[in-house]
Design goal:
The complex is a heterodimer of chains A (about 290) and B (about 230). Chain A is mostly helical. Chain A has eleven helices and two strands; from the N terminus they run H-H-H-H-E-E-H-H-H-H-H-H-H. Chain B has ten helices and ten strands. In chain B, strand 9 and strand 10 form a beta hairpin. Chain B is globular, with a radius of gyration of 17 Å. Classes of the chains: A mainly alpha (about 290), B alpha/beta (about 230).
Chain lengths: ~290, ~230
Amino acid sequence: MVTFLNIFIGGLLMGGIYALVAAGLSIQYGVGRVLNIAHGEFLMVGALITWYLFTIYGISPLISLILIAFVFFFFGFLLDRSLFSRLRNISPSVAAFEANSLMACFGLQFVIQNIAIVIWGAELKGFSYMASPVNILGALFGANRLITLAYSLGIAGIFYLFLTKTRYGKAIRAASQDIFAANLMGINIKFVLSLCFAFGALLAGTAGALISMMYSIHTTMGMEYTVIALIVIVLGGLGSITGSMLGGLILGIVGSIVSYLEPGLTLVAYYMLFMILLLVRPTGLMGRGS
Amino acid sequence: MLKIDNVSVFYGKIRALWDVCLRIGENEIVALIGANGAGKTTLLKAISGVIRVSSGSIELDGKRIDGYPPHKIVEMGIAHIPEGGRLFAEMSVKENLELGAFPIRAWKKKNHEIRNVLRIFPHLRETQLAKTLSGGERQMVAIARGLMSKPRICLFDEPSYGLAPVVVSEVMRVIRSLPNEGISVLLVEQNVHIALQVADRGYVLENGRIVLEGNSTELLQTELIKKAYLGM
């Protein structure tokens, strides 16, 4: 029972974070067609800012997280307005835009990572915050882990409600399904696309803040999360944001089970799952097909 | 009400429309007919702001609207119901209708308006997913969605395309009732017979140019229409 609880909560914990990271990439690619290879770098910056504010100023990560959410949203919006919307204007087709924006994201990845290395260096960092153990039915968990779990599921839940219940949430989903028809409905597409990139940055940044509370972090950690997010959005179905959230949770639980049996095989298990899925169901769990 | 003067449109270097002039009066149904590739859809897209006009002007009640982005033009009261309906497939009928009311003024009254449009199409089920609808139902939802923004002019792009004759007459019945609600219609159709039955006036577009215009009854008598479109 205790082992089961350990694996299950551990899985939900990782899965909740994967869900946030993947939903962020999914909204940027599924709606905006920006395959943001630099997604993990946003996460890394979020993690390091949280670490920095805690170790230098003693600011609680839970406060930094809210701060990061606002700043990253704003920064993401500006980045889309200045970089991607310009690329959209000069690209003759969607395919050309995807290629151009992918190149831009590669550049962005190097720029962000190297600036981070200049500021924070390349060594491992970490801090201890609310690490006191909590007993749940005989299994011990760090309080920070439980808070992280609650936060990641909470943010994913709020984001889901935003997408399904609000005017602009529905506009984002409409644009992801048929951008031409969405335009004819009176939806300002340029604004919605910038909104999507902004939400992607927000989700990556807050996921980074949550990760910094549990694991050691470093300036080159971003790529790992970009790859995981890519696996998750294929798992969940390209273009389906809710699919990405579900895919994230599943991948987290699979990872938790495998790392209980053999910690070194977690990434191998992810790739195996990825390949099996591509063979069995290439459209993903909630994919629309072609 | 809608005044289109000398409008030309280019796709890159290819010219799609040549000095097109067209009028739509209050509560009037105007048909725009022509073969595939004549530029009918291009003209609709130019009116709704999806593509840019290279020269000429489009005025709504004396105010120039060419150059405005599509979302502004919807707010000004022009709804464009695209070919094939283009519903949001993964959403329910209700959510599709809600999105039709996206302009903020319409959004506030969307629940009231959904009840209104469902009265016109009583057999639509709000909770059904759009991708599971039949072709006819899709067209009905597309029309209902277009009406959600409370437009003053509706642009229809081939609403009869691919539908069974019974469904076509149902769609046409709805279109014919719109002027009673204070809505003018620009109806793009390949099916000339149906279009001219419904419309008050018509324009014939060939290779991007208006070649003929007149009352529907007059147009049905002309040699060009008889030969080229009705096969008589």
